[in-house]
Design brief:
8 helices, about 260 residues, about 35% helix, globular, Rossmann fold, two-stranded parallel sheet
Length: about 260
């Protein structure tokens, strides 16, 4: 009789343990332990506010492809993008970049993307943003940056702060103009001794603006001590040197964005 009682007790204990295990499994399925969610990387896009092509009476601004291509390349990979410009609000679009000959899959997508257009129409003022809120900074080109972003003190300080806080700085086509006045902590040019590229003298001559622009990107980068390199005119080409990522022309925008993604991984 005693043996029977012990056996029943063992069976009861085993049953309770099994029920407890089952409940724990069910509980785990109903309330799974949440994995730590990684915060999306945040990238600040800075666009020009300048719309006049020297004293020609012709309009300029940023080049749509150089904005739209990296914008969607990065956004589709989960990056959070904030837009800013010196004056805030709607940055000027270079009218030529909207011509049929310069349309790409990304520009066509932008044409149909009202959300992106609304975001572009409401860029923050550069004076209102801080590098502390972002993981990287990206400058689309177009001729506009040659006039404003190359001299804008808020932009210069932002680039230096990003760089000094170990955060990537990327620019494509004419946008490497933003390195004209940026400095290292020792006062030397930020691009000195670093591999860089940007819109070539040959490409500027091809669009017949050599005598119109305030300076040539290729010449400026070399004068600042940058180790400048390039591919054939209009060919996709981008280089990376530490935290600096630069692209030669509109066709190089995706290459720059890809290098930036790899740098942030």
């Amino acid at each position: 009789m005693k043996k029977i009682a012990i056996t029943l007790l063992v069976l009861a204990f085993a049953s309770c343990a099994k029920n407890k295990e089952t409940k724990e499994k069910v509980s785990e399925q109903v309330h799974p332990e949440k994995e730590e969610v990684k915060q999306n990387k945040k990238i600040l896009f800075v666009l020009t506010s300048h719309s006049e092509l020297g004293d020609t009476g012709v309009k300029t601004g940023f080049w749509v492809e150089e904005f739209a291509t990296p914008y969607y390349f990065l956004k589709d990979k989960g990056f959070e993008i904030t837009l800013a410009s010196p004056k805030g609000g709607q940055p000027p679009i270079d009218p030529k970049s909207e011509l049929p000959d310069f349309q790409t899959a990304s520009t066509k997508r932008f044409d149909k993307d009202q959300e992106a257009k609304d975001q572009l129409a409401n860029t923050l003022k550069l004076s209102e943003v801080s590098q502390k809120d972002f993981d990287a900074i990206f400058y689309p080109g177009g001729h506009g940056p040659l006039w404003d972003l190359s001299e804008d003190q808020n932009s210069i300080v932002l680039i230096q702060e990003f760089y000094n806080n170990n955060k990537p700085v990327a620019a494509v086509c004419h946008a490497p103009a933003v390195f004209k006045n940026t400095k290292n902590v020792d006062g030397t040019a930020l691009v000195k001794g670093k591999k860089v590229t940007g819109f070539t003298n040959g490409e500027e001559a091809a669009v017949e603006l050599t005598e119109v622009v305030p300076f040539l990107v290729e010449d400026m980068l070399k004068e600042n001590g940058g180790i400048y390199s390039k591919a054939a005119d209009w060919s996709p080409y981008a280089v990376e040197d530490g935290l600096l990522i630069t692209g030669q022309n509109p066709a190089s925008a995706e290459l720059v964005a890809d290098l930036l993604v790899k740098k942030l991984q």
